[in-house]
Structure formats: structure tokens, C-alpha cells
Amino acid sequence: MSTGIWILLIVVALVIGLVGGFFGARKYMETYLKNNPPINEEMLSTMMLQMGQKPSAKKLHQMMQAMQQQSKNSK
User: Fold this and answer.
1) Are 5 and 23 contained in the same domain?
2) For the residues 18-43, what does the mean pLDDT come to?
3) What's the pLDDT tens digit per position in 31-62?
4) Are residue 43 and residue 75 in the same domain, yes or no?
5) Spatial separation of the C-alpha atoms in residues 9 and 39, rounded to whole Å
6) Nearest partner of 39 among 31, 27, 47, judged by Cα
7) Among candidate residues 28, 48, 68, 7, the one with its CA nearest the CA of residue 56
8) Closest CA to 45 of 64, 20, 31
9) Do 53 and 66 lie in a common domain?
């Protein structure tokens, strides 16, 4: 085969791989977030009740801020 055909096949394979990888990663992340949703204030409230604490709005807000700050620092 000629060099032009090889280059065309490589480019086509690359494009197919990129498109497939994008949609595969998107599907994986949707499934992951569905099974492991990010923590919200309702979840924190439930966890605090299970630990025997009475969650106040101020305390929930402080915990959410602390978690967001920690996630920013860990990146």
C-alpha cells in the first residue's frame, strides 16, 4: 500500500479512538456519580443524626465549607 493510505488509516483510527474514548469515559462517569453521589447537606444531616448529634443549619454549613476547602487543597 502507499504511504498516503497508511496515514489515512492511522488518522481514521485515531479519530474513532478519540470519539469512543470520550463517550466511554462519559458513560463511566455518569455511572460512577449515579452509584456514588457527591456529599450534600442532606447526607451530612443524616450522618450526624446517626452519630447522635443534632445538626443545626450553621453546623451543616460549616462542615460543607470545610469539606469544599479540603477538596480544593487536595487537588
Assistant:
1) yes
2) 90
3) 998 888 788 888 888 888 999 988 888 888 88
4) yes
5) 46
6) 47
7) 48
8) 64
9) yes
C-alpha span between 22 and 28 (Å, rounded): 10
Q: Give the chain's domain count.
A: 2
Q: Do 32 and 57 fall within a single domain?
A: no
More confident residue, 29 or 64: 29
**Structural domain for 66, as ranges:** 39-75
DSSP code of 36?
A: S
18 and 46 together in one domain? no
Q: Which helix (H) or strand (E) holds 62?
A: helix 57-74
**Within 10 A of 64 (CB to CB), how many other CB atoms are there?**
14
Q: What are phi and psi of 25, to 5 degrees?
A: -65, -40
C-alpha cell at 29: 462517569
- The model's pTM is 0.55
Whether residues 54 and 32 fall in one domain: no
